[in-house]
Automatic annotation (TrEMBL):
It comes from the Bacteria. This is Glycosyltransferase family 2 protein.
């Protein structure tokens, strides 16, 4: 059995993504790791960071992004597919640049891949998620945050990245353009792993968080205030004590990244908002009510979520 890791990246070092740590977190688990590296800005050193891992398993493919041809975030899926197509493993392990796997899950992941290798019903594996927020000690528990997602798929040509690369679907006779198509597509049959993806996408200095959000908005809608890049305001994470405290351990590869955190003095460690922009809207009140129901009455089960998979028991 062979496992390939793969990802797609562009300008991730300048936007404070832990790309080196992300790749390193599964290097011991995979036989190869394919990176689709987009046309980065001159002040970005993503390639150097990846190459500093000095691993013969890593294969970098240089690509050019075209958000006009692939709008609404679909370039993310297109780039993911480029990397996927170069993978040679039986199972393909996808990580985005802000996703990291704890080493304590390696044995479980490998065991399940081996156990289900010949079971063609199983087209992939579902991971739980923990979304860290603001710092490395708190995480998101509010309604609307996805609790799980597909991150390992079989190496089949008709399995494609979907929408803006959050998930995967089987798309026979895919035209190679519309990654948001629903008609004629099929949800993958997956088994759920007792493992978590540690998502650090919302843990970065407040001004860089604003830049990262602006970058995503530009990819998805091409509507962005250029001042968010030139003179970014500090992103408001809100009252940190409203979020649960993380009581576990982080992956070993994150040790230096976490130690370098230097923006705690820019966070609001209270239960109350200091910003008038955070006043409760009708939508915020609805989220607050649903969050309370989910966490106090349903044991964390999420309401009204879209499940882009068929769970195999």
């Amino acid at each position: 059995m062979k496992i390939s890791g793969f990802t797609m990246v562009k300008n991730v070092s300048k936007l404070y993504y832990p790309i080196k740590e992300s790749i390193a977190s599964i290097l011991d688990l995979v036989d190869e790791f394919v990176v689709a590296l987009g046309d980065c800005d001159p002040d970005d050193n993503t390639q150097e960071l990846i190459e500093s891992l000095n691993s013969p398993k890593i294969k970098i493919i240089h690509t050019t992004w075209d958000t006009a041809k692939y709008p609404r975030g679909m370039e993310n899926a297109h780039q993911t597919d480029i990397a996927k197509a170069e993978c040679t493993g039986d199972w393909l392990f996808y990580l985005q640049a802000d996703e990291v796997v704890h080493e304590k899950y390696h044995a479980e992941i490998k065991s399940m891949c081996e156990k289900n290798l010949d079971d063609e019903r199983v087209e992939g594996f579902l991971f739980n998620y923990i979304h860290f927020w603001g710092d490395f000690d708190h995480y998101q528990h509010k309604h609307g945050w996805y609790p799980s997602e597909i991150r390992i798929v079989r190496n089949k040509k008709d399995i494609h990245s979907w929408k803006s690369a959050q998930s995967f679907r089987r798309i026979p006779n895919f035209d190679g353009l519309n990654y948001r198509v629903k008609e004629g597509t099929f949800k993958l049959g997956v088994k759920k792993l007792e493992a978590y993806i540690y998502h650090y996408g919302w843990v970065r200095p407040p001004k860089l968080m604003t830049k990262k959000s602006a970058s995503l908005n530009k990819i998805h809608s091409n509507k962005v205030d250029e001042n968010d890049f030139i003179k970014p305001k500090e992103f408001d994470y809100g009252p940190m004590l409203q979020f649960p405290k993380f009581k576990g351990t982080h992956p070993k590869v994150m040790k230096d990244w976490i130690a370098a955190m230097d923006w705690k003095d820019q966070l609001n460690y209270s239960k109350y908002s200091k910003s008038p922009e955070n006043r409760l809207t009708k939508k915020a009140i609805k989220v607050k009510i649903l969050t309370w129901i989910e966490n106090n009455l349903l044991g964390g089960k999420k309401l009204f979520t879209t499940k882009n998979y068929k769970l195999i028991k």
